[in-house]
Specification:
Elements lengths: L3 E5 L4 H12 L3 E6 L2 H9 L1 H6 L5 E5 L18 E4 L15 H21 L6 E5 L8 H5 L23 H22 L5 E7 L1 E3 L17 H4 L12 E2 L2 E3 H10 L9 E5 L12 H8 L1 H5 L11 E2 L6 H7 L6 H16 L5
Parallel strand pairs: 1-2, 1-4, 2-3, 4-5, 5-6, 6-10, 7-9, 8-11
């Protein structure tokens, strides 16, 4: 019988890919979702329908992931946990006095909830958590101040107590503080399992939970794709770090391999120290999708701006024995999905 893995946050950009890759790797998946409608949406995605996992994919409905003991039932009988669920920032939807209560504390509580549930459950071997590069890269250096420092997965930053200048800085602080809380939990408790933190940069790629073309340009994908649609992404000069969604999902699944030593952080950032040059999407699209550009389906005329941020994820490639997909592959996967959903020729 294949090992059972609980996946939280399975209906997001990273989550749906993680479910698929876990099933393809031979795991049995229990996906935690908020509603039955979300479970039905997962089952309706083309890749899952083609795979036809049957009993190898089941769902547990958790309406409120921040409720006390939210995951206690979900973790029963599982061998591994992949914890993807976390508050997501989509614009400045909070006032400054809400950052702590509505963004930071939920991020910390969600992580602690999965860790305490695992602590109470025998048989678990590893918990893999989605963190972020902003958990180890200082906010100012990440978003605005250009420095020559090359940040890697050993870097640690001071506890960001606030106040926070905007919602994205508060989001960054939530990732730092959740990571600090995780390390403290591991240090202070005698655990039968270990933790691996995966730290993605801006995640770019196709999302099978998008069933309409207008939904494709969402979240971090907008940093690359808005310019292709002739729109302003709203990000401003964007740190030069990106990663293909498939690589992030792949890392989560392959982190379950006992050959990968536990209690480590792994950055997920492509393109080496040079980093992503966001405006190169214009040429990538012109080169790979000339007909769609010529027809005006892809205006491809609003170049983004890149802010240099040096991040080194080479140790991740070395430990896992793979190479991150390029920015070109990231952009192509988004455009291909967009054109497919429009019913247009992909060429």
């Amino acid at each position: 019988m294949s090992a059972l893995v609980l996946i939280t946050g399975g209906t997001g950009l990273i989550g749906i890919k993680t479910i698929l890759l876990a099933l393809q790797a031979g795991y049995t998946v229990r996906a935690a979702v908020r509603t039955q409608e979300k479970a039905d949406a997962v089952l309706a995605t083309p890749s899952i329908k083609t795979l036809n996992p049957r009993s190898h994919l089941t769902f547990i409905i958790i309406p409120d992931i921040l409720a006390d003991n939210a995951y206690d039932e979900a973790v029963k009988g599982v061998k591994f946990i992949i914890h993807l669920a976390s508050p997501v920032v989509k614009g400045d939807g909070f006032t400054a006095d809400q950052y702590e209560s509505e963004l930071i504390q939920p991020a910390i509580k969600g992580t602690m909830s999965i860790l305490t549930a695992a602590q109470k459950t025998p048989g678990i071997q590893r918990v893999v958590i989605t963190s972020s590069e902003v958990a180890i890269v200082p906010w100012e250096e990440f978003i605005s101040k250009e420095v020559d420092t090359v940040f890697d997965d050993t870097y640690e930053i001071p506890f960001p107590a606030g106040p926070y200048g905007n919602v994205f800085e508060a989001y960054s602080a939530s990732k730092v503080r959740a990571l600090v809380a995780t390390k403290q939990f591991v240090r202070e408790n005698k655990l039968e399992w270990d933790v691996i933190n995966i730290m993605p940069s801006f995640v770019i790629g196709d999302n099978e939970m998008n069933f309409k073309a207008e939904d494709v340009c969402d979240g971090t994908v907008a940093a690359a794709f808005s310019q292709v649609l002739g729109r302003d992404s709203g990000w401003g000069p964007t740190p030069s770090t990106s990663v293909h969604v498939r690589d992030v999902a792949w890392l989560h699944v392959h982190s379950l391999d006992p050959k990968i030593e536990g209690n480590q952080n792994f950055l997920a950032v492509s393109e080496g120290e040079r980093g992503t040059v966001w405006e190169e999407a214009i040429e990538i699209v012109k080169r790979n999708f000339p007909k769609a550009v010529e027809k005006g389906i892809l205006p491809n005329n609003k170049p983004a701006q890149t802010k240099r941020t040096k991040v080194d994820a080479s140790r991740t490639e070395k430990v896992f024995g793979f190479k991150f997909l390029s920015y070109e592959e990231q952009v192509k996967s988004v455009v291909e999905q967009y054109l497919t959903l429009l019913g247009e020729e992909v060429a």
